[in-house]
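Batch manifest line 171
LIGAND: coenzyme A
JOB: complex structure
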Amino acid sequence: MEAKNPKDSRTVMTDMVLPSETNPLNNLFGGELLARMDRAASIAARRHSRRITVTASVNHVAFNQAVPLGSVVTVEAAVSRAFKTSMEVYIDVWMEDRYNGKRTKANEAIYTFVAVDETGKPTEVPELEPETALEKERFAGALRRKQLSLVLAGKMKPNDATELKALFSNG
Ligand SMILES: CC(C)(COP(=O)(O)OP(=O)(O)OC[C@H]1O[C@@H](n2cnc3c(N)ncnc32)[C@H](O)[C@@H]1OP(=O)(O)O)[C@@H](O)C(=O)NCCC(=O)NCCS
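JOB STATUS: finished
ARTIFACT:
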């Protein structure tokens, strides 16, 4: 399988925040943002693998900024690393200023998707070759995030999580 770059899977979804999608403070409801991120990330994983993809885990979500009613929100997703059958997808969420159009980073998240065949069995995906400095940084951190996710899910023994352990032992 031919290796791919993050730009091959880059998925951009722009939408407004409507009243039915807000919490009592008139800000975007967290679950709505999770769903938007899941959709964009799922498309990115599909573009990388050209397979059916399923969400295996949500590894990290940071709701750093509230997103007010009426905001224009852009969700950008791209595969940050591919393993054997799983892919880490990094998601950046941007808000657009109503008056000057300036974009500010609102939130970010990291999801893991697995490519499966028609019977739901995990199937291999192409490798990912990062190009930019940011893509290389995200690629480098992905193995320890995968190990952390597997340890938390009870699918890997902490002792086998060598990349993760190195993070603590090297200070
Ligand atoms: C995701 C799923 C396919 C994994 O199946 P599985 O039996 O654990 O398969 P495997 O053990 O072979 O793991 C497959 C890959 O997923 C990865 N994986 C599994 N669980 C993971 C987790 N919690 N975090 C990160 N990666 C995980 C494994 O490391 C492996 O990756 P690799 O092949 O790249 O090394 C299966 O659990 C599933 O179908 N879950 C439901 C998915 C779904 O419906 N999502 C929507 C929720 S509503």
